Amino acid sequence: MSFRPARASDASSLAAISMEVWVGTYLRKGVSGFFADYALSEFTTSKLEAVVASDHEHIIVSQNEDGIDGFIRLGLDSPAPLSQYPGAEIKTLYVQPRHNGKGIGKALLKEVIAQCEALGINAIWLTVNSENAAAIAFYLANDFQRVGTTHFRIADKAYLNDVMHRTIG
Question: Do the strands 57-63 and 157-167 form a parallel or antiparallel pair, or are they unpaired?
Fold first, then answer.
């Protein structure tokens, strides 16, 4: 595995991985039109091209011999839902499910922490669905602490998320 900054030409691959991981993680009982509409409007090539081009976000991809198998997205100007825990936000950490257990997620996290150190960022935060036990365990094992809760919103529906924080350095 190798790591590199995302390029505009990666946007369709990032959209496909986002769709695969999000649908596989959160839509366990079937796919309703409500969630399908959200996923199809959110995980688009054009939206990810804009993210890659932004000066306020960084994406690092994990590349194998066939293509991208995971990525981490860092937001530099996202206000933390709990103001006493500022820092940069890990907006997304997605690894294709067939590559879970290979250390890709941990390596991507290490890459983004090194990037934060280089930028002088001393803390990072993220939100994770409160029912996503595997992701919560992963972050706890990688020195994050649960510091509160917030809600992820899709239209008029709200889903409980844990807020997690980690000091860097």
Answer: unpaired
